[in-house]
Amino acid sequence: MKLSTKIILALFLVCLVPAIYFGIILVKEFKAVEGGFIFNYDVYGILGLVFILLSITFGTILYFKFLKNLALSKLLFFSSLPLTIAYGLTIYYLVNLNTLNSQMAKNLKILLNMSAENRYNTALWAILISIIYCIVLYSLFAYICKPLSRAEKVMTRLSDGRVREEDISLGGGKSFLSLENSMNKINYRYRENENILRKTRLETQKFIPKQFFKFLGKNDVTELELGNQVRKRATLLYCALKGDEEMRKSLSLEDNFNFLNSYLKVASPLIRRYGGFVDKYVGEGLIAVFSRPERALDCAHAIKKAISLENRTRQCDGCISARVSLHTGEVMVGIVGEEERKSPSIISDNINLITKLDKISDFMETHIVFTKALLDDLPARYSLRYRYVGSLKTERTELSIFESLEVYKRDKREKLTSLKGTFEHGVILYNNAEYDQSALKFEEVLKAVPNDKPSYIYYNKSIEKSSGKTN
Asked: Is the pTM of this model over 0.90?
């Protein structure tokens, strides 16, 4: 028994004896007279009233403490027992009131308008008292069972997988403590499982990007099934990283591996930021997929800037350079493999196409190249300075290739933009085997921009082929 309970019990016992003694005096001072009741407020009567109120107060507190430690079935019984006894005694006294001849009984009959001849009022008072008893009993049971209503709501949430961050509290004392503890254990395990699942999803996204799920219309790795596939028009980005050969030779294989990863860590977050996802890492580069071509092109420019900044931070300007090739076309996004080993993958002939684009870009020493398919899909409001640099013939078609001029410094960018028509005319002449004329066009560009690599390569090829044609 708690100390507080012992103190209250002692106070109750101390008050109970004088309450009984002075209570007898109090009852005697409460007298029925013609037309009502009178009470003589003497010292003993007041003392009796005070001790009775104190003993009732302390007794009620003890009673509720007693109820609080009971199981639900016993709680319902003992909480309703005093009320039921009081109700039974009241009905019994009411029914037998007409047979009593005391002055108090006579006054009560007058007050309640009851008599042997008027039994109708007796029935009405009995019904009214019964209704009050039922209402009070219902309210009592509703209050006692209130924690069950809370438990029902909590279980509904838990069954739907909606956990609570805080501890569950039902109230209702010891009778619901076991249920409360059990529900908190369930809630805790739900939270633990939710945290594990969240961590698993975060780790899964490192292997299967969330954008991949969006492409397939799925939400979770558990929803992926072998054969899931969807055909989409998307933009493929191929980023190839090229390092300084002399510097790379001085590094061990492990250092080379870490060095390359340090630059991939620069490019990969940018791809996610612009709404794409890395499909695979290939050699010293990566292939990424975007649903919007303008976002892919923005990402390509951001990668170039970030790589340059990383080089300056490492104080090794030019130690790593990035070439980016882009193409827009149909791709198949799906799950390949077998039941024991499933793998997300992008399947498309366009993957081979962008690797060919990269080879052309490497040969021409350009930075960002893209096809006409991507250019055609760009929004009309999209601002971009570019130029036509040639064509790529495939088995099915011939693709026009363009270079972004946005990667160059301001002075060079403005000169190349103003000479765009001259350069593109030279490329067309070269494609038509008019090498003498094309050489003149590229020579004109080189006079203004001597370090323009594509013009330099085209000029030398034009001179070479022109000489061969002459011979």
From this structure: no
